[in-house]
């Protein structure tokens, strides 16, 4: 009688999984780190881990479509004589001309304007497309100062001093040679076709005391009219928020690690910074400790996708949320209609993130004149406006169900968490318990 | 060395007294707002600021061809984003004098602190004394003439424009420089990544002559300077250059 040893099933390593091994092979072959766009793709504790409780015997709901639920918000009234008035608590985050095509920037302006909200420039200066089509435009003041000039500063509606962003707290911008067209090169005062790595630190200030003087200068230049925002990456949200407020900011913009980027090292995107969910409560706590909650507005971004996310961020204490990646998807980014072309680029619709290569089949993250023709700014702007309106309606639906006549009346007490991690980060009880883990000093 | 300042010459004849702002009695905001409210073609070409006493953002955001005499030393960001204005500081200047200047001129009679002319896009900045570290950082078209020395990391990531140093330069001059041109008359303690000594061709000598004349510098020959600029080896990433950073 012959006896055969039973074979074991081939076992793949959880540590050396398929993606990890492919990345080792890629690094070995090319000698350069992986650069890509978008934000963290790993699974993180997020708004999906929170649920609203809704109304009950102790609190009554508002009638949908009948009883009003307000969504308007004023930003920057702390010091600015011309604060920003928005109809909805959702803004469009800073994305540069250069990383995005001109038609894509125009579409963002059109969509935001129809929906009654603001758009934001990026690390490449202000273009006529976006100024012309954005009723309310926030002008970013970045370390690179590409395209920064007095005229644009004065025709902006608000100024956003960028200290960091969620995808890369502590990192600077990156725009590789393929996307430095003549127009982009001129706006950035750089030779065409070079790899442009912009600074991570401002050239003329460091630290909170300098920041206060920088804010003073910008206020003096613009005659104290325009709100000054300070944008921080989700690194040390309690202290960064407190220091921004102390330096005189009217608005703090807080971007968690799911927040997108045009191009950054994969290792940076996935391993530096904190999830959005973990950043909100410490920032709100800082505002409350300083007596500035609702006086200095908090804008939260990084992974906002729908009205539930909006409502949850507001319930945790944010005044406004901001979207970048989601807005690009609304314009047509990663649309399955271009699947054949995504396949040719070695990827698939939904996973395309090599935005820095400038070959975007959807015509959004490119400077290729032929590709960018695929973005019809009017139609894409309409899609963005629709999406913003749907998100607002969804947030109102939840707020009414919780008995709130303004989305800002949502509060942490309206929430519970599905996981211990989310309960700790959001500072709300684990579902079915009264337990809030992690209470104590941030 | 004899330095006379042509840049402070008013753009046209002035036959009446300058508008005087005394910062000891008038808030800074009033000064800057008055400067910003000057209409195109208005006949208010001469301004004088007394008792700046280290105030920040003095004459920031000027956008008319006026002359401003600042009688004393200023703090941060004097003449920030200046456009067309001709500003003279009769004292020393704190960090970021003339930051992101668009055009016009700024003359500092004394010394300047860090980041003088940072990200400047045009116009002429003259420091008659010394400038500290990071002079001309990220400059984007401005011309800077320093009659004394400059500190470390000057012209860091300088993109465009000219930096002229009559004295010495500190460590890491022109680190990660793009297309700006650097002219140093004295010693350079060390050059930064991708910054190299370059040949002084006739067009550079002519440009330098013009810059010295505009800055009112006399008795100095362009031939006494050495030119530095980008080796352009770091313009496109190569892993084998990673140790240069």
From TrEMBL, chain A:
Short name of any one Pfam family annotated for the protein: Glu_synthase
Alphabetically ordered keywords of this record: Oxidoreductase
Domain of life of the native organism: Bacteria
Stored InterPro entries: Aldolase_TIM, GltB, GltB_archl_type, Glu_synthdom
CDD domains from the UniProt entry: GltS_FMN
Stretches assigned to the Glutamate synthase domain: 75-332, 356-404
Example GO BP: glutamate biosynthetic process
Example of a GO MF term: glutamate synthase activity
Family: Belongs to the glutamate synthase family.
The protein's name in its UniProt record: N-methylglutamate synthase subunit C
Organism: Neomesorhizobium albiziae
Species classification: Bacteria, Pseudomonadati, Pseudomonadota, Alphaproteobacteria, Hyphomicrobiales
Automatic annotation (TrEMBL), chain B:
Domain Glutamate synthase alpha subunit C-terminal: 61-198
Matches recorded under InterPro entries: Glu_synth_asu_C, Glu_synth_asu_C_sf, Glu_synth_lsu_3
UniProt-listed CDD domains: GXGXG
GO molecular function: oxidoreductase activity
Listed Pfam families: GXGXG
UniProt cross-references to PANTHER family, sorted A to Z: TUNGSTEN FORMYLMETHANOFURAN DEHYDROGENASE, SUBUNIT C (FWDC), TUNGSTEN-CONTAINING FORMYLMETHANOFURAN DEHYDROGENASE 2 SUBUNIT C
Name of the featured protein: Glutamate synthase domain-containing protein 3
Lineage of source species: Bacteria, Pseudomonadati, Pseudomonadota, Alphaproteobacteria, Hyphomicrobiales
């Amino acid at each position: 009688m012959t006896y055969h040893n039973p074979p074991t099933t081939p076992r793949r390593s959880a540590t050396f999984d398929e993606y990890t091994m492919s990345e080792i092979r890629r690094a070995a072959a090319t000698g350069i780190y992986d650069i890509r766009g978008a934000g963290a793709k790993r699974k993180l504790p997020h708004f999906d881990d929170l649920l609203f409780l809704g109304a009950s015997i102790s609190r009554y709901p508002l009638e949908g479509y009948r009883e009003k639920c307000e969504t308007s918000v004023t930003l920057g009234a702390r010091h600015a004589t011309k604060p920003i008035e928005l109809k909805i608590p959702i803004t469009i985050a800073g994305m540069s001309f250069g990383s995005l095509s001109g038609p894509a920037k125009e579409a963002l302006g059109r969509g935001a304007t129809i929906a009654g909200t603001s758009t934001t420039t990026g690390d490449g200066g202000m273009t006529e497309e976006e100024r012309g089509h954005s009723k309310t435009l926030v002008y970013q003041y970045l370390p690179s100062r590409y395209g920064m000039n007095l005229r644009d500063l004065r025709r902006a509606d608000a100024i956003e001093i960028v200290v960091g962003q969620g995808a890369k707290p502590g990192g600077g911008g990156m725009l590789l040679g393929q996307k430095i067209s003549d127009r982009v090169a001129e706006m950035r005062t750089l030779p065409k076709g070079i790899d442009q790595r912009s600074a991570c630190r401002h050239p003329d200030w460091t630290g909170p005391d300098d920041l206060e003087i920088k804010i003073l200068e910008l206020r003096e230049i613009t005659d104290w009219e325009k709100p000054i925002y300070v944008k921080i990456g989700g690194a040390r949200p309690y202290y960064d928020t407190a220091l921004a407020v102390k330096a005189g900011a009217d608005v703090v913009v807080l971007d968690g690690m799911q927040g997108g980027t045009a191009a950054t090292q994969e290792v940076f995107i996935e391993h530096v910074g904190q999830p959005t969910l973990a950043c909100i409560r410490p920032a709100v706590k800082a505002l409350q400790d300083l007596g500035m909650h609702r006086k200095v507005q908090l804008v939260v971004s990084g992974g906002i996708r729908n009205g539930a996310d909006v409502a949850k961020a507001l319930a945790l204490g944010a005044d406004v949320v901001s979207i970048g990646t989601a807005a690009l998807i609304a314009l047509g980014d990663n649309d399955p209609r271009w699947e054949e072309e995504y396949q040719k680029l070695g990827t698939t619709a939904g996973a395309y993130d090599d935005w820095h290569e400038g070959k975007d089949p959807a015509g959004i993250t490119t400077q290729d004149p032929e590709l960018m023709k695929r973005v019809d700014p009017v139609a894409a702007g309409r899609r963005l406006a629709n999406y913003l309106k749907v998100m607002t309606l969804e947030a109102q639906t939840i707020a009414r169900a919780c008995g709130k006549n303004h989305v800002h009346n949502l509060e942490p007490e309206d929430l519970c968490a599905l996981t211990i991690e989310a309960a700790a980060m959001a500072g709300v009880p684990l579902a079915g318990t009264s337990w809030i883990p992690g209470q104590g000093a941030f | 060395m004899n330095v006379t300042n042509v840049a402070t010459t008013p753009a046209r004849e002035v036959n009446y007294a300058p508008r005087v702002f005394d910062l000891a009695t008038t808030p800074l905001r009033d000064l800057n707002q008055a400067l910003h409210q000057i209409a195109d073609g208005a006949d208010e070409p001469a301004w004088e600021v007394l008792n700046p006493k280290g105030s920040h953002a003095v004459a920031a955001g000027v956008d008319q061809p006026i002359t401003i005499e600042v009688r004393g030393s200023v703090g941060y960001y004097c003449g920030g984003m200046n456009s067309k204005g001709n500003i003279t500081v009769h004292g020393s200047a704190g960090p970021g004098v003339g930051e992101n200047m668009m055009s016009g001129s700024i003359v500092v009679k004394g010394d300047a602190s860090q980041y003088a002319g940072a990200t400047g896009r045009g116009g002429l900045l003259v420091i008659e004394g010394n400038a500290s570290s990071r002079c001309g950082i990220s400059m984007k078209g401005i011309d800077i003439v320093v009659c004394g020395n400059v500190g470390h990391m000057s012209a860091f990531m300088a993109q465009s424009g000219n930096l002229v140093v009559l004295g010495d330069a500190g460590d890491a001059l022109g680190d990660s420089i793009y297309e700006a041109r650097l002219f140093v008359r004295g010693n350079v303690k060390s050059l930064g990544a991708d910054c190299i000594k370059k040949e002084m061709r006739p067009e550079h000598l002519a440009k330098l002559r013009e810059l010295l004349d505009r800055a009112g510098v006399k008795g100095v020959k362009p031939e006494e300077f050495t030119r530095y600029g980008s080796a352009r080896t770091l313009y496109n990433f190569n892993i084998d250059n990673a140790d240069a950073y």
